[in-house]
């Protein structure tokens, strides 16, 4: 039987906290290879002499003289013969001049290629230097954490440092104007207690974006103002104004929503609305117990939680049970009278198509 509260943590972080995870050493970056400068003496220059001999200007001069000589001796019969002979010489000159085996041309081409490769090598070397510094920094950090984990005396400290290294990757929420978004009637009731205990760690009216989806958590706890975020949700069984079921067991899209949070290194804690109303202090105790797994001690909170009374579990409901709850006005049995009178104000408040896409929980709370 599944019950509230529901606490979801990233799988890798959970393994860390259970002592089943050891961080892998970072991979050393590869040193870029310096290109080899071409050796000018290794090229074949034999055809340079042919190029000098068959210089196009010389050939054209020779052809012109041959043509003139042939024309003077026999202007009617020999002109074409001399012209054809000159044409063959021009063709041979072109072949020799542009021959790809020429050493000077090949060397110039290879040297130009070398200069380009050397510029690329310098860029890669600069990038390598930065990567190597990052690698050494990470290596020292990881080695120190692993050493603490394997040492019984410092094991708990090492585990928490490793868990924190994961949560540094968490995406931060953004403050938004949520006045147009309807909230559940119990949220303000619980918000005051959260502020009294956790102070300015509590964030409201914020959104967070994961993979093209935008989410509006009921409450966010930003513990010690580092990149450690807890999404605190209050789950009602149905919408007050129309009795539509929400947060029911078969709602797998809600599980997908929570998965987006945990994959991005957030912690998700879900309480039933009944727990929030009937056991508010115990719900705060549960939140504190989650925080304490990561931060020990939290000096500002230690004195407040000298004794810990855990919240009584509350069974999760199916969609059919939520319909029955709505028919019997189940929420009115535990809500204070002032909140019961407000329950009909809970209405479906659609968000834009880019917000909460595909989430069957139509209430943004």
Describe the structure.
The structure is a single chain. 48% of the residues lie in helices and 10% in strands. The chain is α+β, with helices and mostly antiparallel strands. The protein has a 5-stranded mixed sheet, with helices on both faces. The protein has a 3-stranded antiparallel sheet with strand order 3-5-6, covered by helices on one side. It has a two-stranded antiparallel sheet with strand order 1-10. Helix 3 (56-73) runs antiparallel to helix 4.
Task: Describe the strand arrangement of the main beta sheet, using strand numbers.
Answer: 2-9-8-7-4
Distance between the termini: 24 Å
Query: What's the shape?
Result: elongated
The oligomerization state is: single chain
Helix content class: 40-55%
């Amino acid at each position: 039987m599944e019950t509230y509260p529901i606490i979801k943590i990233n799988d890798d972080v959970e393994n860390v906290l259970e002592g089943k995870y050891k961080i892998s050493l970072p991979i050393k970056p590869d040193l870029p290879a310096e290109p080899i400068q071409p050796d000018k003496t290794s090229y074949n220059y034999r055809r340079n002499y042919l190029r000098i001999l068959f210089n196009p200007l010389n050939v054209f001069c020779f052809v012109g003289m041959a043509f003139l000589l042939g024309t003077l001796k026999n202007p009617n019969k020999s002109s074409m013969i001399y012209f054809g002979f000159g044409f063959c010489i021009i063709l041979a000159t072109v072949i020799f001049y542009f021959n790809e085996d020429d050493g000077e041309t090949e060397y110039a081409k290879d040297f130009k290629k070398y200069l380009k490769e050397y510029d690329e090598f310098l860029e890669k070397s600069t990038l390598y230097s930065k990567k190597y510094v990052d690698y050494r920094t990470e290596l020292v950090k990881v080695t120190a954490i692993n050493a603490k984990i394997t040492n019984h005396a410092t094991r708990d400290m090492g585990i928490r440092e490793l868990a924190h290294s994961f949560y540094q990757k968490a995406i931060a929420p953004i403050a938004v104007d949520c006045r147009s978004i309807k909230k559940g009637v119990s949220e303000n009731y619980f918000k005051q207690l959260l502020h009294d205990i956790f102070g300015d760690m509590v964030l409201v009216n914020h959104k967070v974006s994961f993979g093209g989806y935008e989410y509006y958590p009921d409450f966010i706890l930003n513990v010690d103002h580092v990149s450690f975020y807890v999404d605190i949700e209050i789950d009602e069984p149905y919408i007050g104004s129309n009795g539509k079921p929400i947060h029911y067991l078969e709602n797998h899209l809600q599980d997908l929503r929570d998965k987006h949070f945990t994959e991005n290194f957030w912690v998700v804690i879900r309480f039933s609305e009944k727990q929030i109303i009937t056991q508010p202090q115990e719900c705060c105790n549960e939140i504190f117990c989650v925080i304490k797994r990561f931060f020990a001690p939290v000096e500002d909170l230690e004195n407040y939680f000298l004794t810990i009374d855990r919240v009584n579990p509350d069974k999760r409901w199916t969609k059919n049970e939520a319909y029955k709850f709505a028919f019997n006005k189940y929420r009115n049995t535990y809500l204070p009278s002032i909140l019961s009178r407000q329950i009909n104000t809970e209405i479906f408040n659609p968000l834009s198509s880019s917000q909460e896409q595909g989430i069957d929980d139509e209430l943004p709370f």
